[in-house]
């Protein structure tokens, strides 16, 4: 079992790694996403069994709602990574920022 000292050491190492900027590199991000896909494939049976035991969730339902959704999302992230990392500015709509626009004010009356 890890001690608090081990945790603090690991946290310090992670912070150092992060401060070096390596996590900003597309190659690092891509490898992390691929690692998650590999983990899902390797542990699929364990995940299916755990959700069946813990929640009574059927394996087809588990794959559709949990594993399959994650695989699709990870694949989308892999395909879109370069675009998402581009330096272009994106305008956020007022509604997304929580501001009331004229249209939302009228709709709430």
Automatic annotation (TrEMBL):
Keywords: Oxidoreductase. PANTHER family: ALDEHYDE DEHYDROGENASE. GO terms for biological process: aldehyde metabolic process. It comes from the Eukaryota. One of its GO terms (cellular component) is cytoplasm. One of its GO terms (molecular function) is aldehyde dehydrogenase (NAD+) activity. Residues 89-109 are annotated as: Disordered. InterPro entries: Ald_DH/histidinol_DH, Ald_DH_N, Aldehyde_DH_NAD(P). The keyword Oxidoreductase applies. The lineage of its organism: Eukaryota, Viridiplantae, Streptophyta, Embryophyta, Tracheophyta. This is Uncharacterized protein. Residues 89-102 have a biased composition (Basic residues).
